[in-house]
Design a protein that fits this description.
By secondary structure, the protein is mainly alpha-helical. 63% of the residues lie in helices and 0% in strands. Helix 1 (14-21) runs antiparallel to helix 2 (26-43).
């Protein structure tokens, strides 16, 4: 008879460890981590997830100020 193979030691993963400490099932915690990694890799180069540039912020503020001015004009 052959000896049962020892499983490889799991790598330390703070995210999964935290979920396990909170009482989540190990299979669920590992699957959640796997899905998050897939989403992160798919969205890594997506322009919609990049930080706003100063120009983007300035346009946003000007649009908001314009909307407020129109609203004040309607109320006056």
């Amino acid at each position: 008879m052959s000896e049962p193979r020892a499983e490889a030691a799991p790598q330390a993963n703070p995210f999964v460890d935290t979920l396990l400490q909170k009482g989540m099932e190990p299979v669920v915690a590992e699957e959640l981590e796997r899905r998050i990694q897939i989403i992160e890799s798919d969205e890594a180069d997506d322009a919609a997830h990049r930080a706003l540039t100063p120009v983007d912020i300035a346009v946003y503020l000007l649009v908001c100020a314009g909307i407020c001015a129109v609203a004040l004009g309607v109320l006056a």
